[in-house]
Specification:
single chain, about 280 residues, alpha/beta, 8-stranded parallel beta barrel, 11 helices, globular, Class II fructose-bisphosphate aldolase, FBA_II
Length: about 280
Amino acid sequence: MPLVTAHQLVDRARAESRGVGAFNVIQVEHAEAFVAAAARAGTGVVLQISQNAAKYHGGLEPIALATLAVARASSAPVVVHLDHAEDRALVSEAVRLGFTSVMYDGSALDYEQNVEATADVVREAHARGVFVEAELGKVGGKDGVHAPGVRTDPAEAVAFVAATGVDALAVAVGSSHAMTDRTASLDFERIAELRAAVPVPLVLHGSSGVADHDLTRAVKEGMTKINVSTHLNNTLTQALRAYLDEHPTVVDPRKYLGAGRDAMRDEVVRLLAVLDAV
């Protein structure tokens, strides 16, 4: 199945009150695991490459081309998405490479600057049929610090979507990036308010820190795209450690990376059921 647009996957899920799993790719094994999980679960997924991941690989193109190839070979619908790009040139490169979705993150800017910069990205991306996600009400934890008090204002969110033309909006509702425990306390009342007010799909960042039952409830209250990264890296790391502890003389990375890939696949299958993404 060819790559699909986020409109095909995310907009439909919003209309049906379902969640879409969006998982961050760092190594090609991540992409392979997530696509295998989607095929097993019989649903679509979003493969995300962040600005930080691109930097790690020395540029976007190497990991992007590998991820796009994995996605195009999938039997399940797959969106390839640029995550948390603050660099406008990186957004343009992602569009050129064939990404079907991009996130421009102007949340560190003041409101008017965020609107102006995001609207400019929307014009460029929409001219190529590419879906655009933005962020309003800065989600905490880029440095690992939980910021439970940060919230997106519904009225401001409505104005921001109208002014920019974005296709999805990441909102601050109590989750935080880079959490290694699942203790985030979501503001479900604010999620419901935002869902009622905002005409585009809502995105939950920092979902690694959210317990299963709260992820399910978040989808029911109105979140659509659910981003998970740290939790799956933890799954990978634990599987690698277990394999190497059991096989201390192994030197073939395919052995231990394969074990990690399988562990991530199985956990994503489980998470897709938690999100009721069927």
